[in-house]
Write a structure and sequence with these properties.
Elements: E1 25-28, H1 30-37, H2 43-56, E2 60-63, H3 65-83, H4 94-100, H5 103-124, E3 129-130, H6 142-157, H7 161-172, E4 178-179
Parallel strand pairs: 1-2, 1-4, 2-3
Helix pairs in contact: 1-2, 3-5, 6-7
Length: 180
């Protein structure tokens, strides 16, 4: 496993006049995707950067099925928290609520979360596309290679295993820049 040099860049617009700060392609991990679609603090900075990067400059933004899975999980929890008071729970008790709700109530919440996830993916698709991280055309056994490389990254460089998997996915596709 080898890594090509990557380019650190700052998404603030003070740097946008330097075209060298914009790589041709980048991988979007879950943190910024969440910030954008859940409208978290400073989401507009991510939104403005992605508009400039992908739409105005025509660069490529990619994410993976892992990004989508993590995004869906976070939207699910956020939806449980936002509905907690309706069912007599505090937002921090979302896990109890998840385990104790009846099927009809839980189905209602899941349908809301699913709708939010669909909207989130539509937001992301304005800027790029999902990688098929199961079978990239260059490597039929890529899923196994990605998992093995993620473990190597995890044990060698530290950080979380999911972060290591994002890096391994991007690396498998030759994408050296990760927006996180």
């Amino acid at each position: 496993m080898t890594f090509n040099p990557s380019l650190p860049f700052d998404i603030s617009n003070k740097n946008w006049s330097d075209s060298n700060l914009f790589p041709n392609e980048m991988y979007l991990d879950t943190n910024l995707a969440l910030m954008l679609v859940l409208r978290k603090h400073n989401f507009y900075k991510v939104e403005n950067f992605l508009k400039e990067y992908a739409i105005t400059r025509g660069n490529d933004v990619f994410w993976s099925v892992l990004t989508e899975s993590e995004l869906f999980e976070c939207i699910h929890v956020d939806t449980l928290k936002s509905n907690a008071m309706k069912f007599g729970y505090q937002p921090a008790e979302w896990k109890d609520m998840e385990n104790e709700l009846d099927q009809k109530s839980f189905s209602m919440i899941n349908n809301e979360a699913d709708g939010r996830f669909t909207s989130a993916i539509n937001v992301l698709k304005q800027y790029g596309e999902v990688l098929d991280d199961v079978n990239p055309s260059n490597q039929p056994d890529s899923r196994i290679i990605i998992k093995e490389n993620a473990r190597k990254i995890y044990t060698t460089y530290g950080g979380g295993i999911k972060d290591a998997e994002h890096i391994a996915i991007a690396n498998e596709y030759g994408i050296n820049n990760i927006l996180t």
